[in-house]
Amino acid sequence: MDFKTGDQFDIEKVAEIVKDAVEEAMGKTYPIPSRLKTWTANVGEECLEKIALMKSPLKYLVFTDMMEDNGAGYHFYMSAMWESDKDGYYSFKESREAQHVWMAINIIGVAI
Asked: What global pTM score does this model have?
């Protein structure tokens, strides 16, 4: 397949999508542990909806992880092998101290 400009993973656009999705889903609300499940799903769904609007030929995977900041450790690892001229990933990590939440959002784009 001959890839043309715009068919590569657009890290700047994906980063913007993730940051907007986090703000839209979580805003500045106070943390309620029961909301973590909803926030996790809403951020992931929002990311996918906005990525779909890009009309990219890539296939995307979105992983969202959130946990209440209660002093426990938070570790995650992601690795991949692909063609770096087309494929890519974006990893977003943030601690929201006002909401006592740690989050990691990883988006992978793969050309098929």
From this structure: 0.77
